[in-house]
Amino acid sequence: QVTLRESGPALVKPTQTLTLTCTFSGFSLSTSGLCVSWIRQPPGKALEWLALIDWDDGKYYNTSLETRLTISKDTSKNQVVLTMTNMDPVDTATYYCARTQVAEGYYFDYWGQGTLVAVSS
Amino acid sequence: DIQMTQSPSSVSASVGDRVTITCRASQGISSWLAWYQQKPGKAPKLLIYAASSLQSGVPSRFSGSGSGTDFTLTISSLQPEDFATYYCQQANSFPALTFGGGTKVEIK
């Protein structure tokens, strides 16, 4: 059974750095064709893909945010960590991690429940 | 980045209705498209991948079609549990994976 769970602070101040952890089970991030992505959704708005890390430790970022994002993994702990620097109130959103399957494209087949992060002083 | 435009942004329908949602890509993406369903307060759920392949466990009343720039998601007979927001996602232009703006299916 594949599960993912996000954890991190519910509130950060402007200019601070956000660190989110995705803890997963039911698959290995060493398996060819499997990746983990971070995706966010501001309240009432659409989904936005942020970053992806693949089975070969390849790291890919949304070009509009890549100067602020860092993704990493700890395969032994089944965890993926996302850091986002210089947080702003517009970054208030629910942040999801999702297993990403490479099969004729990149598809998010399992999602965590999401964690709401508010940015406010 | 490839822009994904969904229409309509919302649709009112009754149980048993056939519902069609469209998604247009700003440039060709072959068949590299997915559809997701999201209910309030929940994470999205993958319904369709590769434009027309049904994800395991998804009811057969959901179907997808299209290639190139124009795609459709069809719900053949709307059920009460299908009232939700639906998103398309292009899976072709990596690493710029993008979603459409969403279509909310509401009760008429």
Tell me what the structure shows:
The complex is a heterodimer of chains A (121) and B (108). Chain A is mainly β. Chain A has no helices and eleven strands. In chain A, the strands form two sheets. In chain A, strands 2, 4, 5, 6, 9, 10 and 11 form a seven-stranded mixed β-sheet that branches. A four-stranded antiparallel β-sheet of chain A has the order 1-3-8-7, with no helix packed on it. With 108 residues, chain B is mostly beta strands. In chain B, 0% of the residues lie in helices and 49% in strands. The termini of chain B are far apart. The model of chain B has no long low-confidence stretch (mean pLDDT 96). At the A-B interface, strand 5, strand 9 and strand 10 of A face strand 4, strand 5 and strand 10 of B.
Q: What structural class is derived from the secondary structure elements of chain A?
A: mainly beta
The shape of chain B, in one word, is: globular
Q: Give me the number of helical elements of chain A.
A: 0
Radius of gyration of chain B: 13 Å
The sequence of SSEs of chain B as H and E is EEEEEEEEEEE
Number of strands of chain B: 11
The average pLDDT value of chain B, as a whole number, equals 96
Oligomeric state of the chains?
heterodimer
Total number of beta strands of chain A: 11
Structural class of chain B: mainly beta
Largest interface: A-B, 24 and 27 residues
Number of contiguous helices of chain B? 0
